[in-house]
């Protein structure tokens, strides 16, 4: 690893370090321009005499106090019932005996008073405090955080989420399958992109498409994307529409599985991925991280959060990163630079205004993968081989500007209004693709075709989300209500110049650098505008103390306009999307639930009478049990689901394909239907102090039950069985923590062609192992080591016969992080 004080030849690294250094100087020097930092005294002071380092994980306050007393060798006398409903975020850093007790009990209303030489007794503090059941974080750089925030929790369990309905619900109160990848899990496993995080969820399947990114599915269907609960039309790393979102900005990744139309409107029934970004903290904290890894990976991240005024009413956070890497595949590289900044201001005691910008630029040379033979068998080509144009280059530039207002309305009601302007620019140079069938014996049979000199696309999105929520009384019981409006207006424009001819190649002699320039080319242009807007309402009814009913409905308008031709299709008005969930508390730990959710997706195909087909509908039925164990440190869940997507367009063979007919060519009927059903099991949280676990198993069986493909399996490239396990353990009495992960999937395959030209490609059952170790050099500095695909398994993503990317071989990474 190159010492940081040396001049780096890597411009991206210098860029990130310059941003971080400037941010720190600006923060630390703000007093000179009338601002005062509220850095904790613990950061400024020298370690007290007799201080020792502690690394106690979050948990019930009584348990944490007992661990601390044992670690310091003293006796603490108290009645555990006094602290039965209180939690602590643990203790990290160097403290004297008394300082540690003071930190752990801060804000609790209690204090530890010495009795004798080695004893303490717990008593109520003389200083009154506000009533609370959960203590603020007490790490050296900790700060009070909003509900649901996972940063600093030290846990794989999330406290709450509003992704399903805008109601702030715990996992147990949410009547759908919900998986949350917390900040702790992201850090432990070194998950640097949202793609990595999604691959850690058992119910999510990632289909790697090489140059065009990955497509993500749940229960057989595509997932929608959100950032901070606001729809993101560019999606997640798919179809050259968006970059691979980096997790440096992310507090947590929430995955809601099954139809989620209540807040989305139009889309696929797979579910929703919500990337929740980091927020400013009420006290100063900062960190810098440098990472190196296989294939010349170099990564630098800086993160600074601080009050910007002495009162703390204005707070800011800045995250900057640079990440550059080659690949195990020849010619392939990635160069990423990104920045996220946010400012929050308390205009009054009831009004908070926020503004943020997130920008990320990925420059890369990608590929589609390695071809199979014409019959689908392995052609024996190296997993490092590159089958494209060596002059290929792709630049994805993504920016989100967001402003938000939160207004407390009284009677515990609040109004939240958010507006986001999103833009994705894609500049693709010398894109190419393979076609044909490979003969491994001769090396012939393939051609490089559809080469494009340049391809430009821009996606402008205006996103709005306004809602009010709060409690109300009815029939002597207290209920909750949220009403709101959200939607997107998207302008999608692309231009390109491409050559549709084919250049035959032989895989035994192919040279990507020898393809030469593209001659001629045919210009192409497409430009559409899409509006997806809806109003929704959702209520949580307290039928009894143990029984809660959630009901919701959305009314949506959808319109897509072809700007080039002026045609409007599809267009839907007043589409109704219902939602219902029933949750019954079996006891203090377990709840049973049943839910129904759906989503619609407009389609432009026409029937033989010229009418546009009704939207495709996806309906999700789910039964499950959820639990909060070990004083709510551990979330467990089990669910069965039945998801039906109906109204799929099927070619109407009774009408000849004729441009002059009522359909303008092919006619269709809404006769296709797919049913996906299966089982989800999940465990997330702390098994015991210092031991975190995230595990899930999903079984999915999907097939066509109506239409020409009736009784055939749906999306065979997605395995039916999926297992994910991740764990991390803080070794008692040491500075080490160790962990590992397992990703196991069943067999999958994909078929095509007919007769003698039929082919099938397949990937057998697969088990991938990873290991991590973390060593805390000082209370503020830690070294992380990780290896993925430990056994160096060779496997393929079944995108297609001509292109099937290999999975990443064994990879090593090492990172050094310092907290200021």
From TrEMBL:
<dbReference type="InterPro" id="IPR011662">
    <property type="entry name" value="Secretin/TonB_short_N"/>
</dbReference>
<keyword id="KW-0812">Transmembrane</keyword>
<keyword id="KW-0798">TonB box</keyword>
<keyword id="KW-0406">Ion transport</keyword>
<keyword id="KW-0410">Iron transport</keyword>
<keyword id="KW-0408">Iron</keyword>
<comment type="similarity">
    <text>Belongs to the TonB-dependent receptor family.</text>
</comment>
<feature type="compositionally biased region" description="Low complexity">
    <location>
        <begin position="152"/>
        <end position="170"/>
    </location>
</feature>
<dbReference type="InterPro" id="IPR037066">
    <property type="entry name" value="Plug_dom_sf"/>
</dbReference>
<dbReference type="Pfam" id="PF07660">
    <property type="entry name" value="STN"/>
</dbReference>
<dbReference type="Pfam" id="PF00593">
    <property type="entry name" value="TonB_dep_Rec_b-barrel"/>
</dbReference>
<keyword id="KW-0472">Membrane</keyword>
<keyword id="KW-1134">Transmembrane beta strand</keyword>
<keyword id="KW-0675">Receptor</keyword>
<protein>
    <submittedName>
        <fullName>TonB-dependent receptor</fullName>
    </submittedName>
</protein>
<dbReference type="InterPro" id="IPR000531">
    <property type="entry name" value="Beta-barrel_TonB"/>
</dbReference>
<keyword id="KW-0998">Cell outer membrane</keyword>
<dbReference type="InterPro" id="IPR012910">
    <property type="entry name" value="Plug_dom"/>
</dbReference>
<feature type="domain" description="Secretin/TonB short N-terminal">
    <location>
        <begin position="74"/>
        <end position="125"/>
    </location>
</feature>
<dbReference type="InterPro" id="IPR036942">
    <property type="entry name" value="Beta-barrel_TonB_sf"/>
</dbReference>
<dbReference type="Pfam" id="PF07715">
    <property type="entry name" value="Plug"/>
</dbReference>
<dbReference type="InterPro" id="IPR010105">
    <property type="entry name" value="TonB_sidphr_rcpt"/>
</dbReference>
<feature type="region of interest" description="Disordered">
    <location>
        <begin position="147"/>
        <end position="171"/>
    </location>
</feature>
<dbReference type="InterPro" id="IPR039426">
    <property type="entry name" value="TonB-dep_rcpt-like"/>
</dbReference>
<keyword id="KW-0813">Transport</keyword>
């Amino acid at each position: 690893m190159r010492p940081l004080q040396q001049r780096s030849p890597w411009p991206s690294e210098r860029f990130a370090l310059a941003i971080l250094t400037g941010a720190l100087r600006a923060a630390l020097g703000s007093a000179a321009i009338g601002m005062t930092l509220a850095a904790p005294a613990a950061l400024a002071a020298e370690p007290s005499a007799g201080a020792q380092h502690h690394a106690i994980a979050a948990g019930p306050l009584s348990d944490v106090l007992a661990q601390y007393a044992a670690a310091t060798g003293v006796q603490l006398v108290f009645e555990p019932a006094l602290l039965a409903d209180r939690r602590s975020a643990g203790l990290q850093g160097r403290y004297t005996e008394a300082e540690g007790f003071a930190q752990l009990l801060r804000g609790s209303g209690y204090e530890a008073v010495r009795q004798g030489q080695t004893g303490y007794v717990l008593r109520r503090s003389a200083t009154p405090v506000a009533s609370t059941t959960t203590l603020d974080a007490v790490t050296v750089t900790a700060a009070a955080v909003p509900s649901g925030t996972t940063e600093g929790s030290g846990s794989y369990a999330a406290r709450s989420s509003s992704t399903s309905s805008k109601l702030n619900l715990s996992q147990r109160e949410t009547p759908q399958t919900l998986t949350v990848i917390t900040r702790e899990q992201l850090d432990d496993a070194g998950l640097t992109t949202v793609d990595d995080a999604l691959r850690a969820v058992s119910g999510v399947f990632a289909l790697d498409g090489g140059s065009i990114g990955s497509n993500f599915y749940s229960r057989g269907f595509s997932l929608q994307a959100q950032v901070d609960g606001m729809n993101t039309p560019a999606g997640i790393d798919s179809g050259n529409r968006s970059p691979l979102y980096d997790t440096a900005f992310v507090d947590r990744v929430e995955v809601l599985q099954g139809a989620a139309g209540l807040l989305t409107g139009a889309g696929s029934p797979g579910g929703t991925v919500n990337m929740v970004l980091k927020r400013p903290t009420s006290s100063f904290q900062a960190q810098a991280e440098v990472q190196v890894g296989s294939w010349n990976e170099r990564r630098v991240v800086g993160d600074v959060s601080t009050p910007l005024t002495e009162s703390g009413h204005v707070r800011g956070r800045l995250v900057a990163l640079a990440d550059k890497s080659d690949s195990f595949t020849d010619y392939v590289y990635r160069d990423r630079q990104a920045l996220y900044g946010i400012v929050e201001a308390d205009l009054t005691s009831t009004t908070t205004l926020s503004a943020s910008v997130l920008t990320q630029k990925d420059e890369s040379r990608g590929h589609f993968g390695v071809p199979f033979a014409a019959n689908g068998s392995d052609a024996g080509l190296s997993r490092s081989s590159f089958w494209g144009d060596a002059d290929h280059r792709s630049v994805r530039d993504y920016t989100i500007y967001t402003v938000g207002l939160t207004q407390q309305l009284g009677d515990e009601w609040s109004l939240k209004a958010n507006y986001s302007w999103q833009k994705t620019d894609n500049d693709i140079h010398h894109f190419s693709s393979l076609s044909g069938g490979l003969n491994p014996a001769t090396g012939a049979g393939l051609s490089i075709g559809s080469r494009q000199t340049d391809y430009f696309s821009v996606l402008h999105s205006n996103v709005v989300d306004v809602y009010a929520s709060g409690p109300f009384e009815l029939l002597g019981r207290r209920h909750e209500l949220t009403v709101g409006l959200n939607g997107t207006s998207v302008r999608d424009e692309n231009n390109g110049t491409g050559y549709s001819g084919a250049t035959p190649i032989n895989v035994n002699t192919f040279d990507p650098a020898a393809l030469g320039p593209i001659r001629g080319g045919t210009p192409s242009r497409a430009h559409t505008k899409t509006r997806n807007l809806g109003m929704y309402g959702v209520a949580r009814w307290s039928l009894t103390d143990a029984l809660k009913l959630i009901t919701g409905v959305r009314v949506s308008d959808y319109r897509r306009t072809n700007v080039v031709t002026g045609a409007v299709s599809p267009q839907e008005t007043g589409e109704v999307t219902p939602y219902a969930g029933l949750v019954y508390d079996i006891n203090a730990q377990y709840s049973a639930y049943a839910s129904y959710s759906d989503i619609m997706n407009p389609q432009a195909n026409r029937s033989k009478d010229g009418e546009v087909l009704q939207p495709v509908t996806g309906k999700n039925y789910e039964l499950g049990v959820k639990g909060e164990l070990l004083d709510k440190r551990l979330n467990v869940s089990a669910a069965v689901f039945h998801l039906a997507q109906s109204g799929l367009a099927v070619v109407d063979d009774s009408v000849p394909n004729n441009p002059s007919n009522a359909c303008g060519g092919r006619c269709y009927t809404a006769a296709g239907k797919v049913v996906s059903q299966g089982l989800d099991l999940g465990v997330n949280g702390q098994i015991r102090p210092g031991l975190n676990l995230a595990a899930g198993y999903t079984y999915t069986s999907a097939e066509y039950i109506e239409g020409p493909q009736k009784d055939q399996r749906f999306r065979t490239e997605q395995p039916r069985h999926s297992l994910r396990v991740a764990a991390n353990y803080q070794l008692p009495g040491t500075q080490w923590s160790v962990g590992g992960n397992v990703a196991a999937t069943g067999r999958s395959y994909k078929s095509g062609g007919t007769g003698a030209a039929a082919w099938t490609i397949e990937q057998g059952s697969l088990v991938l192992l990873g290991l991590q170790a973390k060593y805390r050099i000082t209370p503020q500095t830690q070294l992380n080591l990780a290896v993925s695909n430990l056994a160096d398994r060779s496997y393929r993503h079944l995108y297609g016969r001509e292109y099937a990317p290999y999975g990443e071989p064994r990879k090593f990474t090492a990172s050094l992080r310092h907290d200021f």
